[in-house]
């Protein structure tokens, strides 16, 4: 059967994508960040998942204040690269997996998650930068991708508890996919870590909070779900609320996981950039 075997949580800073697109990975400013991605990219090439379910937040590319879904799932064959004001990134097209996406939508809705089903979904840096972090600049993305857009822009966003529960429901849905023989699934949670882009605290970074979050993600994810919106805003900045999407990833994995890579760097364009990779118990059994 299909299994969620791998979990990746990473920041999706747009400037990281620009650095990759413009060949700046080895410049003095960016080199320390990208050196920390080298091990992740090697692991990704070896792990070679068939499909990635990628939780991210849209940045007014597909949705705006006229339409704000809490959870939206892309079910199309392909997802165009969004123009975020400076032209679409020159990267491979994102290929979907509609059969699994529709199965996920059905399973999740029938189990109490009111998913918005999207057939036309341009994807912005929230989705594409994590792919670039993990794959570099391939001619085509090695895995199919199912976008899972989460509202963390307009209050009220979903709680960490709800996101973790969604991850558990995704895990169950993947396991019941009828056409999933030996299908290796990775779930990405993106955004964060601590940062704030506006107001009196613009530039806010809280490294102790970020380090504690990374430390607890493997063995105490339920404890992380108890962090309130107010606490996240206070301790991780206004955009730190994106960390609830990391809990979707963790909820989708087995209770026992093995951390295989971690990287944390400050600053990446006024942001604390984090990356952590887990292998679930299914991967541990096969080792």
Describe, in plain words, how this protein is organized in 3D.
With 287 residues, the protein is α/β, with parallel strands linked by helices. The protein has a single domain, classed as Protocatechuate 4,5-dioxygenase, Chain B. Helix content is 35%, strand content 20%. It is built from eleven helices and ten strands. The strands form two sheets. Strands 6-3-7-2-8-1-10-9 form an eight-stranded mixed beta sheet, sandwiched between helices. A two-stranded antiparallel sheet has the order 4-5. Strand 9 and strand 10 (273-280) form a beta hairpin. The longest helix has 16 residues, at 160-175. It is globular and about 50 Å long. The protein starts with a strand and ends with a helix. The relative contact order is 0.23.
How would you summarize this macromolecular structure in one to three sentences?
Helices cover 35% and strands 20% of the residues. The protein has 287 residues and is α/β, with parallel strands linked by helices. Strands 6-3-7-2-8-1-10-9 form an eight-stranded mixed β-sheet, sandwiched between helices. A two-stranded antiparallel sheet has the order 4-5.
Protein traits:
287 residues, alpha/beta, Protocatechuate 4,5-dioxygenase, Chain B, two-stranded antiparallel sheet, 10 strands
Low-confidence stretches: none
Strand order of the largest sheet: 6-3-7-2-8-1-10-9
- What is the helix/strand order? EHHHEEEEHEHEHEHHHHEEH
Question: Can you tell me the CATH superfamily?
Answer: LigB-like
- Rounded to the nearest angstrom, the radius of gyration is 17 Å
Q: Total domains, how many?
A: 1
What share of the residues does DSSP label as strand, in percent?
15-25%
> What characterizes the major β-sheet?
8 strands, mixed
* Distinct helical segment count: 11
What is the CATH architecture term?
3-Layer(aba) Sandwich
């Amino acid at each position: 059967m299909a299994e969620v075997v791998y979990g990746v949580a990473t920041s999706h800073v747009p400037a990281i994508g620009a650095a990759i697109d413009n060949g700046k990975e080895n410049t003095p400013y960016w080199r320390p960040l990208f050196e920390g991605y080298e091990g992740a990219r090697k692991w990704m090439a070896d792990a070679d998942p068939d499909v990635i379910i990628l939780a991210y937040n849209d940045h007014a590319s597909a949705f705006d204040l006229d339409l704000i879904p809490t959870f939206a799932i892309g079910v199309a064959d392909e997802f165009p690269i969004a123009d975020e004001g400076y032209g679409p990134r020159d990267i491979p097209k994102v290929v979907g997996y509609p059969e699994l996406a529709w199965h996920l939508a059905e399973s999740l809705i029938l189990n109490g998650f009111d998913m918005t089903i999207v057939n036309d979904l341009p994807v912005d840096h929230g989705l594409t930068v994590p792919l670039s972090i993990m794959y570099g600049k391939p001619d085509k993305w090695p895995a199919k991708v199912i976008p899972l857009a989460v509202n963390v822009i307009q209050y009220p966003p979903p709680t960490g508890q709800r996101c973790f529960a969604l991850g558990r429901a995704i895990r169950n849905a993947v396991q019941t996919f009828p056409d999933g023989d030996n299908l290796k699934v990775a779930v990405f949670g993106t955004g964060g870590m601590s940062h704030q882009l506006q107001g009196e605290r613009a530039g806010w970074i809280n490294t102790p909070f970020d380090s504690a979050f990374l430390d607890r993600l493997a063995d105490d994810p339920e404890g992380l779900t108890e962090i309130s919106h107010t606490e996240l805003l206070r301790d991780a900045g206004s955009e730190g609320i994106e960390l609830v999407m990391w809990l979707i990833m963790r909820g989708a994995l087995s209770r026992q996981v093995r951390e295989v890579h971690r990287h944390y760097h400050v600053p990446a364009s006024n942001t604390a950039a984090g990356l952590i990779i887990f292998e679930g118990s299914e991967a541990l059994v096969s080792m």
